[in-house]
Model the fold of this input.
Amino acid sequence: MILVGIEVARYGLAADVAALIAKLNVRWASTLLAKSTIAEQTANFIGVYDGPHSRPAVKSAIENSDCLVALGCVLPSGYAALGCRIRSARWCMPMTAACAFATMPR
Done:
């Protein structure tokens, strides 16, 4: 599962992340700030994740994912108090998009 955050757009990496999603054929969601960074018609899009304000199916898919790759996500610390249950042990790669793609060969 990939969670696309706002820094993907800020660093101009939307096309790279979309290509990664297509190549891996993996389910993905975006954060509210990153909505429409990648076209929502792209295959395997499950919805927008906004912590406790998410649709139940999206919230469950993100928070119960076996491996969550979060690219460029900025999540408010207050989400924990509001019921956000992403456990850090499930995060495969919580990093900024710049870190993720700065080291990838082009």
Observations:
- The CA atoms of residues 2 and 69 lie 5 Å apart.
- The first strand starts at residue 2 and ends at 4.
